[in-house]
Amino acid sequence: MPYVEGQTIHDADSHVMELPGTLHRYLDPKYRQAFIDRTGKKDVLPEWFEKAAALQDDPEFRAGDEANLLLRKNYQALGAFRREDRPKALDLFGFASQLVFTTASLSNYGLDESGDADLAIEAARAHNRMMVDFCSVDRRLLPTAYVPLCHRARAAGIAREAIEMGAKGIVVPSRHPIGHSPSHIELDPLWATVQEAGLPILFHVGGEEKMHRDYLNNGLPQVLDFHGGAENFTSLTFMAIPLSVWQTLSALVIDGVFDRFPNLKFGAIELGASWLPSLMRFMDSGAAAFGKEERLQKLSAKPSEILRRQLRVTPYPHEDTRWIVENAGEEVCLFSSDFPHVEGGRNPLKRFNDALEGLPERAKRRFYRDNFIDLMGRGLDPALHDAPGLVAA
User: Fold this and answer.
1) pLDDT (average), residues 160-181
2) Which of 35, 139, 273, 327 can pair with 277 through a Cys bridge, CB separation 3.0 to 4.6 Å?
3) Helices vs. strands in the chain: H and E counts, helices first
4) Whose CA is closest to 139, among 102, 100, 196?
5) Alpha-carbon distance 198 to 159, whole Å?
6) Burial of 33 (0-12, 13-18, 19+ CB in 10 A)
7) Contact yes or no for 277/324 (Cβ under 8 A)
8) How far apart are the C-alpha atoms of 102 and 19, rounded to whole Å?
9) CA distance 99 to 375
10) Backbone angles phi, psi at 14, to 5 degrees
11) How many CB atoms sit inside 10 A of residue 339's CB?
């Protein structure tokens, strides 16, 4: 029995848990050694990962696929790294489609900030080939491609290549590129390319500027994350997640990028959403305070209205989703599972259903279906708009 029945739900955030060394298979051989030297990511499969991979060949373990669909996380999850298993996972979930992101390459290994634009671009191109290949087994799996913004003249070409391969969404970092704004006019060919393809621009957690490490030096023992390590988020470093996307969206709206490309949709994925109503109010306030600026006078509408028109976001399941919808608009929020990551929890549908209690059915359908269709544009085959046997009223 599928996790979702009698309802169309699109999943705006899921991941492949690529095994160590996977990206090397897709890298141009000329850049493999430079990639290893710069990142320290060797083309080897450590013993722990070998055991995780072998577990997927154990018939006794695999007999529990359905019963443990939402209980097994990361490398133990069904279809986490084996593409041939992912359609079964999607069948068991009952999602109409699933947007798929990387896990290991979310920050492009820090190469965008390394000063080596060629290597950053080649790592991104390898990532894009990897993602399209993983998702090629099922049209319900929607691959995302990454475009570094560190080389303005090459960004559109990287996006075009990814789109021609079959990418359904273009990821850019939420932090600013070194030396220029994400709103720089020389990036307009990138936005034009993606708008022409009818695909969205996506920001995802991992591409933001992290909290400065000085904040962590409080004279007390180091706080570990929920994985037991120090490399992920804690209650303090979590606070910095939306800061980069807040600034980037502000620049893109105020400098007119949203208006120059009014049919281009943007998605903020796994970055939370409680910040959005405040950003809308704060930008409107700034537009009123600095209204004599020519660029503000040229805006097609209030900044909040522009965001509502073109931005879609995924709340975390622990956020007050109803409050976000009521204060940002019914048009903006999307469902996401974060499968197979631990952060997605063991019952995201129940958590979001509970959080949406009291909203009209129209708003709920937008959250689970309509807003995703709007975000994805031509990246989502119309035949996938509804789950099999269902047609939205």
Assistant:
1) 97
2) 327
3) 16, 7
4) 100
5) 12
6) exposed
7) yes
8) 11
9) 11
10) -145, 175
11) 25
Instruction: Give the closest residue to 201 by CA, choosing from 245, 243, 242, 254.
Output: 245
Find all residues with CB under 8 Å of 118, minimum gap 6, and list them.
31
| Residue range 180-201, pLDDT digits in tens | 999 999 999 999 999 999 999 9
Q: Residue 130 burial by CB count (10 A; 0-12/13-18/19+): exposed, middle or buried? A: buried
Cβ 301 vs Cβ 309: under 8 Å: yes
Which tokens belong to 184? 């720089």
| Per-residue pLDDT reduced to its tens digit, 371-383 | 999 999 999 999 9
111, 146 contact by CB (below 8 A): no
Angle, to 10 degrees, between the axis of helix 117-135 and the axis of helix 152-165? 20
What residues form DSSP beta bridges with 101? 15
Q: What are φ and ψ of residue 34, in 5° steps?
A: -65, -35
Taking the whole predicted model, whether its pTM rises above 0.70 is answered as yes
Give the domains, in start order, of the chain with CATH numbers: 83-382 (3.20.20.140)
Q: Which residue(s) pair with 339 in the sheet?
A: 14
Our measurement of the distance from residue 349's CA atom to the centroid of its chain's CA atoms, rounded to an integer in Å, reads 19
User: 265: closest CA among 200, 335, 183?
Assistant: 200
Tell me if the bond preceding 340 is cis, omega within 30° of 0: yes
Neighbouring C-beta atoms of residue 79, cutoff 10 Å:
28
Residue-wise pLDDT tens digits, 256-272: 999 999 999 999 999 99
CB 144 within 8 A of CB 202: yes
Residue entry with tokens 């390898």: 126
